[in-house]
Every structure is written in structure tokens, then in C-alpha cells.
Amino acid sequence: MQELDRIREEVIACRACPRLVQWRERVARDKVARFAQEDYWGRPIPGFGDAAAKILILGLAPAAHGGNRTGRIFTGDRSGDFLFASLYRCGLANQATSVTRDDGLVLSNAYVSAVNRCAPPGNKPTPQERDRCLPFLTKELAALTELRVVVALGAYAWDGALRAIAAAGVSQPSPKPRFGHATEATVGSYALIGCFHPSQQNTFTGRLTPDMLDAVVLRAIALAG
User: Quick check: helix, strand or coil at residue 111?
Assistant: First the structure.
């Protein structure tokens, strides 16, 4: 756990991307009306979960009024509501909701993180911002010594996972595995599973249903052993 704590402190202190620093702090200062009375986190978001996790759930980046507000990835937004409900149904979380970073949520055998740690404008980090942030993910992969499975929520997370694993010196499959929902690939000692991101544009349209997400999570549990 000590190494994950060190990574956490590095993440929180990061100011490497001027555009993202300006955006996350402006969002935290100029709050939307529904959260006008809340204190925003307004800093980069570290990963969280079980230090002995065999499963990593990987997203794109914090939401401007989700993780950027609460200080915990996927906490306080609709995507997180959908994700944590599934982790609870599948036995990886002790509760189905996540509202604040101190709401009692505990993950078992799972760790949740993101490729980028700051909320980006338009939810679109630049390639340079991605590359500056990826070393944090590579360090987390090394610190999670029991890790066996990476669940990539969306194509961006899939690509980020491959890049972070490659940066750790792991040889990549050829040809490069392509993202798809429920697609699986073996990358070194890791099993990589793709899943549509639990964004509202996917969950509200039925592109990703609770049963579909549960099936991916249960497959991850089976592969983790």
C-alpha cells in the first residue's frame, strides 16, 4: 500500500498540463448551480481500491462535475452510478452507490483508475496530455502486484492500457488488439477486456445495459481466478 500512497501523492500534486490545470480549477471555481454549495476537489484524481486487487477498472478521465468535484474517480456522476451498481451486484463493492469520497465505499479485489487524471474540456485530452499522464498508470500497474485483468471502459482506455503496459517493458501482441465490447486480448501477464464506457450516451440509449456490464465484470472475475 505504501507505493500506491506515494503514487497518489504524486498524482494529486501534478501540474504538468497547463490547459488541464486551468480548466479543472476554473470548473471548481465557477460551479454549476446544482453544486453551488459544494467544495470542489479541483485537482488530479488518483486511483483507489483494493491494493491486492486482481482486477483494474480503467476509465478515460474524471468528469468535470463528478470526480473533479468529489475527488474520487467515477464518484458523483451517472457513469459512476452505473459502474458501481454493477460492481456491487458482482460482489466487488460493498455498496451500490458512490456519492462522495468518504461515503464508505470499499472495493474488494478491484482497483479503479483512469488514463488521464484531470477533467479535460469536452472530455477530450490531447495526445500530449495523455502521454504526460500515462506514467502514473504504469506505476500503478507495477504497484498492483496481484493484478491479472484490466477492464478498459471505452476505446480510449483500451489504447491507454496498451500504452501503459508497453511502457512497463511488456511486449505487445501483433497485430495490435482492437477495442470492442467484450473483446479480450492477452498482453504479457494481463488479460485485457473491452467494455463500452458507462456514459449516459451509451446507457441511456441501451448500447450498454446493466446485464452487458455485469457480464464483462463477471468475466473479469473468472479470468482473475
Answer: strand
> Which residues lie below 8 Å from residue 36, measured CB to CB, with a gap of 6+?
none
For the entire predicted model, the pTM comes to 0.96
Across residues 156-165, what is the average pLDDT? 97
Instruction: Please give the Cα distance from 101 to 73 (Å, whole number).
Output: 9
CA distance 170 to 163: 10
**pLDDT tens digits for range 133-143:** 999 999 999 99
Q: Kindly give, in sequence order, each residue whose CB lies less than 8 Å from that of residue 202, ignoring residues fewer than 6 positions away.
A: 196, 208
CATH number of the domain that residue 22 is part of: 3.40.470.10
- The percentage of residues in the chain with a pLDDT greater than 70, rounded to a whole number, is 100
For residue 223, what is the DSSP state? H
* DSSP state letters, 25-94: HHHHHS--GGGTTSPP--S----EE-TT-SEEEEES---TTTHHHHSSTT-SSHHHHHHHHHHHHTTSBS
Q: What is the domain range of residue 150?
A: 2-224
Closest CA to 81 of 208, 179, 194: 208
Q: What digits encode the pLDDT tens for the residues 11-27?
A: 999 999 999 999 999 99
Give me the pLDDT at residue 26, please.
96
CA angle in degrees (0–180, nearest 5) for 149-219-146: 25
In the three-class reduction of DSSP (H, G, I as helix; E, B as strand; rest coil), residue 6 is classed as helix
